[in-house]
Design goal:
Elements (H helix, E strand, L loop, with lengths): L2 H13 L15 H6 L4 H18 L3 E4 L3 E10 L5 E11 L4 E5 L7 H7 L3 E2 L3 E4 L7 H16 L4 E2 L2
Antiparallel strand pairs: 1-2, 2-3, 2-7, 3-4, 4-6, 5-6
Amino acid sequence: MSRDAIGETRKIVCSRKAMPENKTQMTDATVDAFLSRLTPEKRANEARVLDALFQEVTGFQPRLWGESIIGYGHYHYRYASGREGDFLATGFSPRKRAFSIYIMPGYADFDAILKRLGKHKTGRSCLYVNKLADIDTGALKELVCAGLDDLATQWPIKPT
């Protein structure tokens, strides 16, 4: 077998390797039980407010993803690379320092809403809010809707 043929065979074999699963998966744990364990109480109360906001805006029931992310809706993706999986459509995590709010696939075209949101920081598809008093929850509702609309142009969103 020629070197070129061996190289091509390796490429085929290597491309058939299983892609790793997402580390964060939807679980059967209840969101109410998770929220009841949150401390301090002020953080737990704010998390309950966010839960109600996300349920109102999305119309989806909350599901726990991993150990600490509350998600609403989910989607199945498949990239050109062959990697595929399932992930939450939107949601949040009440971290110690700040709430992490997940808007998929990111915040690229939402500058006008973000300007009205209030005090926050952004990552690629994550928004960090220290406390709810720092933001305009009306703008957050708009942002969640805009994120879901944007995501739905790429992948079908299913209810949780």
